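Example for tutorial group B:
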């Protein structure tokens, strides 16, 4: 088997999510977190079906909050609603705890079950989340490919043609795979995801202490040889210099096919306040749905300009902003709580 992970803009059968279930993480914002998850699910359901995983006993709560009809976002009207199933989970960041999907050499869908350790053992317990990929793949009837490497989906972005972008800050962190060298990590990404070239950015977000700098906060593939990058224009922003170091790496890089990269900078940033805590809402933490792009926004004047940049970078897609300051408070955004289920690519 030689699986290859398709790009996120490839067509999906559904979007996978998980319902909030760890009150200690959210504290006083727990109910508000559920509202934001439901709003994201409804926005995505305007473009494609959503499968929401709830902890045992919470399915009815999730159904009541999300609804089961087509989402109300400004989409294409082709979505087919939200289904809720129950499986044991510890937390609700499915991008990281769920499987990573790929196609085998025949175009059939397979699920790569990487290990999960709660972002370097930051939250206890995580046993159920580490087992979730296997249970979910069994429920979906999708063949499972095991990997002993710890890897979260938010740590990588791929072009579907052999190139992967990640950050040294996260993937080389000693709390993930301390016994693996950079070359060994690249080899495992090649074997499990069909990666021929890894572009290593030095930095994730400085304030992203929860994930140790996932790439989905700072860069994302949006097309063949086309990458959007965070490039804060305010010199006082903590990542002003760091993101320019990332930019320099991308400008000097070619992809697995030898192409120079078209780079689209997103200079806008925005902050909000949740439970007395100042949080940055990351515009790059978006989800590419069928015909759409669902983007976390902060309800500030910067939102419109950022959405316009993304809309220009994604011609043919409807770009929808969903308020997500509470997701940022929890440590992520729209991309972090979603995982695409790609269509099979059989001829």
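The residue assignment follows.
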């Amino acid at each position: 088997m030689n699986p290859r992970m398709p790009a996120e803009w490839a067509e999906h059968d559904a979007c996978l999510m998980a319902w909030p279930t760890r009150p200690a993480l959210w504290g006083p914002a727990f109910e508000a977190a559920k509202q934001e998850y439901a709003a994201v699910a409804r926005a995505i359901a305007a473009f494609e079906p959503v499968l929401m995983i709830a902890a045992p006993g919470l399915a009815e709560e999730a159904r009541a909050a999300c609804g089961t009809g087509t989402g109300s976002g400004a989409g294409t009207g082709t979505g087919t609603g939200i289904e809720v199933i129950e499986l044991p989970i510890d937390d609700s960041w499915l991008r990281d705890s769920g499987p990573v999907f790929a196609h085998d050499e025949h175009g059939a869908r397979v699920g790569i079950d990487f290990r999960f350790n709660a972002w370097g053992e930051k939250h206890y317990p995580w046993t159920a989340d580490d087992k979730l990929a296997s249970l979910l793949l069994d429920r979906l009837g999708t063949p499972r490919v095991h990997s002993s490497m710890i890897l979260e989906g938010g740590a990588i972005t791929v072009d579907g043609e052999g190139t992967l972008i990640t950050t040294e800050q996260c993937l080389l962190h000693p709390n993930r795979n301390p016994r693996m060298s950079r070359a060994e990590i690249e080899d495992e990404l090649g074997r499990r995801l069909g990666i021929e070239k890894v572009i290593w950015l030095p930095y994730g977000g400085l304030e992203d202490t929860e994930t140790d700098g996932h790439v989905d906060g700072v860069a994302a593939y949006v097309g063949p040889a086309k990458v959007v990058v965070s490039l804060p224009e305010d010199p006082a922003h903590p990542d002003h210099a760091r993101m320019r170091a990332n930019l320099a790496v991308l400008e000097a890089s070619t992809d697995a096919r030898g192409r120079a990269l078209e780079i689209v900078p997103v200079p806008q940033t925005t902050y909000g306040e949740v439970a007395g805590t100042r949080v940055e809402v990351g515009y790059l933490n978006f989800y590419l749905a069928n015909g759409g792009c669902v983007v976390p926004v902060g309800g500030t004047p910067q939102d419109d300009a950022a959405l316009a940049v993304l809309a220009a970078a994604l011609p043919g897609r409807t770009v929808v902003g969903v308020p997500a300051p509470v997701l940022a408070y929890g440590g992520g955004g729209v991309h972090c709580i979603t995982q695409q289920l790609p269509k099979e690519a059989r001829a």
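The chain has eleven helices and 18 strands. Compare this with the pattern of hydrophobic and polar residues in the output above.
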